[in-house]
Specification:
43% of the residues are buried. This protein has helices at 51-59, 94-100, 111-118, 179-191, 197-200, 203-217, 226-234, 239-263, 280-285, 288-293, 299-303, 315-328; strands at 10-15, 19-29, 34-44, 69-74, 82-84, 91-93, 105-110, 127-131, 141-146, 150-158, 161-167, 269-271, 307-310. By secondary structure, it is of the alpha/beta class. It folds into two domains: 4-117 and 314-328, Nucleotidyltransferase, domain 5 (2-Layer Sandwich); 123-311, Hexokinase, domain 1 (3-Layer(aba) Sandwich). It is globular and about 60 Å long. The strands form three sheets. A six-stranded mixed β-sheet has the order 8-13-12-9-10-11, sandwiched between helices. A five-stranded mixed β-sheet has the order 3-2-1-4-7, sandwiched between helices. Strands 5-6 form a two-stranded antiparallel sheet.
Amino acid sequence: MVSLSKFDPYIVADIGGTNSRFGLVTSIDKAQQKVVIENLVTFKSSEFSSLEDAVLGYKESLNSLEVKQASLAVAGPVVGDKIKLTNLDWNFSILETKHNLDFKNLMIINDFTAYACSIQYLDKSCFQTIHKGIAVENYPQAVLGPGTGFGVALLINQAGAMNALALEGGHMSLAANTPLQAAIKEFMSRRFNFVSVERVFSGPGLRYLYQALAAVEGSQTRNISTAQISQYALDGSDEMCQRTLSLFCSWLGSIIGDFALTLGARGGIYLGGGILPRIVDFLRESEFEAAFKSKGQMSYYLEEIPVQLVTKSNTALIGAAAWFENHIGERM
C-alpha cells in the first residue's frame, strides 16, 4: 500500500438528488485493487445551494488539511464544461468550480460511471446473486438501478482494459408488458407529459406507482412516503404497499432484461442505486427473475446472464477514486 507520506490525498464524493457523500482518499493500490477512504461524511444535498458550497462544507471537516484535488461523481450527464444535475437544482462550470476551490485537479464524472468503475475494486462479499448465470469474458457489463433517479452505465473491454461509459437509459420511454402495466402507464401519462423508466423506477417513482396502482384498481391510498411504502411492504403490515413493491420488482425485472438485450450485456448485470440493497430478500422472492428472463424467443439469452446486486454503500466513492487514478496518471 502506498504510504501517506508519498501520497497526495484527494476528495471523492457521490452527489445525488437526496444525499451527498464525501470521503478522503488517503491511499490506493491499483495492483491489489484496494482503496482507503477516510473521513466519510454524508450531507443532505438540500443543505447546500451549489456543488461548490457542498465541497466547502466537507473541507471544513478536514481540520485544516490542505487538499488540492477532487474526483466528484454527480447524478447527471457530464458532457463538456457546463453541468446540470438531473434531480437537483445545481448548475455549474467545471473550470469555474476548479478555480473557485483552488484545486490543482478536479474530475467530474457521472455517478453510475463511478459505480461501474468500482466493480473491479469490490470483493465477493459486496455482491448478492439475484440470478445465476455465466458471464462471457470480454462482453459488456451493465451497471444500473433505481435511486433518487435511475442510473445506467456500461463497462466495455477496450484494448484489454475495462472502461466505463455513462448512459442516460433511465430517461427512455417506459415499456408496458401487461394490461395492468399499460393501464398504470396510461394513468401516469395524464399526470406527466412523458413517462420514462425513471418516472417509476426511482424513489419518487415508487410513490407514483403506489398512487397509480390504487387509482387503476379503485383502491384507497394513504398519504405515506416512499420509505413508508417500502417499510410497510417489508413488514407485511399493508397489502397495498406489498402489491406496489411486488409490481415494482417484477416490472423492474423486465426493464433490466430490456437493457441486457439492448446493451448485449453478456458479461453480467450489476444492480446499484439506493433502493434495492434495502429490499434484497423481497427482491429475491418477487417475480423479478422471472420477468427478467421472459423475452419470448430470446429468453435463453437472458437465462445465461448473471445478475448481481451491489450491496456496498460507498461504491461511487471507490469508483470516483478509480476514475481519478486512471485519468490523472500513475501514482504508485
